[in-house]
Design a protein that fits this description.
Layout (H helix, E strand, L loop, with lengths): L4 E7 L6 H9 L7 E7 L7 H6 L2 E3 L6 H11 L4 E5 L4 E2 L3 H10 L4 E8 L4 H18 L11 E5 H6 L13 H11 L4 E10 L6 H21 L12 H19 L6 H12 L1 H10 L7 H28 L1
Parallel strand pairs: 1-2, 1-4, 2-3, 6-8
Antiparallel strand pairs: 4-7, 5-8, 6-7
Helix pairs in contact: 5-11, 8-12, 9-10, 9-12
């Protein structure tokens, strides 16, 4: 009998959490209705335990997660398509929660990270996600479905041509897909009950590199959807303000030669921009509060650098 839904996991390496991911999928409370698909991104030696759980293994060249997800969902016949990442561990009711949203009429549904790890930078990153989740929870429809915890109607995916394989890294290929769906009038919803455990970047350096990449590839996504630079349902206004303030920091320092209070004014504005994130931290992880301003500045600088990099790439591409 054909499965009601398939879960596609792109796999480019046999990482430490890969087996835990597949065991968690095998333990879903609706497992009998699911087909579990391992979509290989290049040559991968799947562990025997993973291969025994996967109902379908799809081979393909190394193209990045966008291509692997496209191959995976197109190889399975189910109408409801779920995605998670190979380093995520879904809770037992994860699939059921997402499928319920599709049954209620949504074209796409987004879940959440339930946790991110115990290191301070991981806890701060989780606070960042919690702030974004609070934004999403206030809206009937959203414009972003991240593929670490996602579900779509096959017909919706097909209507927009699936993932854009021009995004070669695990970065903004899902943003681009979501924006195309939202612009086509499709209904994307937030499902906080669809929870997956994850290990966020363990070091400050790793987090900085991740945010540089986020800023870089966002500029490529904005090339098609420039209006999203002003407003979307996932990016807090204060985060945009922090990136802008990081860009103004050198000017504030230079202006101190003529106007002594300039750095103090800059600092007060930056601290004010941290208030919403601090409110989220006070509710979810108060122990992160002392480092929150430093974290926000660190994040803003990384995003600013990545955005400048991406903007340069976009400008060069347009000039050709």
């Amino acid at each position: 009998m054909e499965a009601e839904a398939c879960v596609v996991v792109p796999v480019h390496a046999a990482g430490q959490r890969l087996e835990a991911c597949f065991r968690a999928l095998d333990a879903q409370d609706c497992r009998s209705s699911l087909e579990i698909v391992a979509s290989l991104d290049g040559k991968v030696d799947l562990p025997p335990a993973v291969r025994s759980i996967a109902d379908r293994v799809v081979d393909g060249p190394r193209t990045g997660p966008a291509g692997a997800r496209n191959r995976g969902y197109r190889a399975a016949p189910a109408e409801s398509i779920l995605f998670t990442d190979s380093d995520c561990v879904p809770e037992p009711r994860w699939a059921s929660a997402l499928l319920a949203a599709l049954k209620d009429g949504a074209d796409g549904a987004k879940g959440v990270y339930s946790s991110g790890g115990g290191a301070m930078i991981q806890r701060l990153a989780q606070v960042e996600f919690e702030e974004r989740y609070a934004m999403l929870g206030s809206r009937r429809f959203i414009d972003l479905v991240d593929t670490y915890s996602a579900a779509f109607r096959r017909s919706a995916l097909d209507a927009v041509g699936g993932f854009d394989e021009g995004f070669p890294l695990p970065d903004h290929e899902d943003v681009d897909l979501s924006w195309r769906m939202a612009s086509a009038g499709m209904r994307l919803v937030f499902v906080p009950g669809a929870r997956v455990a994850h290990e966020h970047r363990r070091t400050w350096g790793g987090y900085f590199v991740l945010k540089v990449s986020r800023g870089r590839w966002r500029m490529h996504a904005l090339r098609k959807f420039p209006g999203k630079a002003v407003r979307d349902t996932y990016t807090p206004f204060c985060l945009k303000a922090q990136v802008a303030l990081c860009g103004l920091a050198p000017a504030a320092a230079a202006a101190s030669l003529l106007f002594l209070p300039a750095p103090a004014i800059w600092l007060l504005l930056f601290l004010a921009s941290c208030i919403p994130l601090a409110g989220t931290a006070s509710r979810t992880d108060p122990g992160t509060l002392p480092l929150l301003p430093a974290f926000a500045a660190f994040r803003g600088a990384a995003l600013l650098y990545g955005s400048a990099w991406g903007a340069l790439e976009v400008a060069l591409a347009r000039s050709r």
